[in-house]
Amino acid sequence: MKGIFESLRKTRNTVFSQIATILGSGDITEETWEDIEAILLQGDVGVETTLALVERLRARVTEEGLYRSADLQQALREEILALLPEPEPLNLDWPLAVVLVIGVNGSGKTTSIAKLAARWQRAGKRVVLAAADTFRAAAIDQLKVWGERIGATVIAGAEGGDPSAVTYDAIQYAQSRKADILIVDTAGRLHTQHNLMAEMKKIRHVIAKRVAWAPHETFLVLDAATGQNGLMQAHSFLKAVKISGIILAKLDGSAKGGMVLAIGHQLGLPVRFVGTGEQLDDFAPFDREAFVNGLLGSQ
Ligand SMILES: Nc1nc2c(ncn2[C@@H]2O[C@H](COP(=O)(O)OP(=O)(O)O)[C@@H](O)[C@H]2O)c(=O)[nH]1
Ligand SMILES: [Mg+2]
Q1: CB 254 within 8 A of CB 224
Q2: Which of 9, 179, 43 is nearest to 99 (CA)?
Q3: Cβ contacts of residue 11 below 8 Å, gap of 6+?
Q4: Smallest Cα–Cα separation from 293: which of 1, 14, 16?
Q5: For residues 178 and 35, what is the distance between their CA atoms, to the nearest angstrom?
Q6: Of all atoms in ligand 1, which is nearest to the CA of residue 115?
Q7: Interatomic CA distance for residues 134 and 139, integer angstroms
Q8: Residue 204 Cβ < 6 Å to ligand 1
Q9: For residues 256, 292, 13 and 2, what is the CA-based torsion angle, rounded to 10 degrees?
């Protein structure tokens, strides 16, 4: 089981460790700013967030009269933390909590759902899974296999069936069995982007109509290897449905962990969990301090 610090190894070693080198000694010069900017951009922090971060740091240098580049290390740590929204506790305290999981094909939805379900079952919750990705038979089977492994019932329909109908059936089942949490897996690819977004809305509508205040959480799964492209995906999903948090899958092996800063700053969304490998245990709740330590090296 890998934690956040360990799974940020590539991001840290290939990108962010250069910051420590630059800020190791000497006074702050124009070159210092250029170097920091270049590293942040290289680390998939994105233009908008990079500029905002550098601006904040420059302001602090003026306000606090900092002149040694080493002083920027602590300031950078604090400003990164400030970019990450402090998350509220998960909104799962309902007779039946409904969690909708969306994201493009291959981002890691089904695997993340299995990890979430395993985690919540271990905590004593009864979890039901809805196979509302009916686009491919393999997707339904994949969820069934995970369900069997972790002991969670999977409600599924036929390949090509109506995802909203599967969701409806799963709600009925979960309510009748007094389950605690229903997690709805969805398709990440349909014939057109428009169809996909319409489908998401429809599923959400079915949930909202059957369960009070639901979906209680809507997680968008992003693949950490996609970096700034993942941000673009998030923008198009946000147009269709309200999202309450991000699951950042495949952080292990990605050098683009800096995208978390853009998720916080540009989308205003908390990262809730990170995927740190392919096994059930390779999953960690997002922790802001652990993330900053993982990015810049622990202090
Ligand atoms: N290394 C790694 N692989 C992952 C992680 N999460 C998912 N995967 C792999 O990514 C691939 C796609 O995942 P899947 O859950 O099927 O994506 P979906 O199409 O969004 O449902 C699979 O091969 C998973 O094993 C992760 O956190 N780390
Ligand atoms: Mg899937």
Answers
A1: yes
A2: 179
A3: 43, 251, 254, 255, 256, 257, 258, 294, 295
A4: 16
A5: 56
A6: 6
A7: 7
A8: no
A9: -80
Distance CA 122, CA 120 (A): 5
Residue written as tokens 């630059």? 22
Q: Give the pLDDT confidence score for residue 1 in this predicted structure.
A: 64
Cα dist from 53 to 77, 137, 197, whole Å: 11, 45, 33
pLDDT of residue 280: 95
253 lines ligand 1 (CB under 6 A): yes
Question: Using an 8 Å Cβ cutoff, are 263 and 231 in contact?
Answer: yes
* Closest to 102 (Cα-Cα) out of 91, 93, 92, 113: 113
Residue 277 CA to ligand 1 centre (angstroms): 8
Tens-place pLDDT, residues 257-289: 999 999 999 999 999 999 999 999 999 999 999
What would the pLDDT profile of 33-72 be if each residue is shown by its tens digit?
999 999 999 999 999 999 999 999 999 999 999 999 999 9
Whether the Cβ atoms of residue 101 and residue 184 lie closer than 8 Å to each other? yes
CB 254 less than 6 A from any atom of ligand 1:
no
Please give the DSSP secondary-structure letter assigned to residue 70.
T
pTM across the whole model: 0.96
Question: Residue 163: how many CA atoms within 13 Å on its side-chain side?
Answer: 31
Ranges under pLDDT 50 in the chain: none
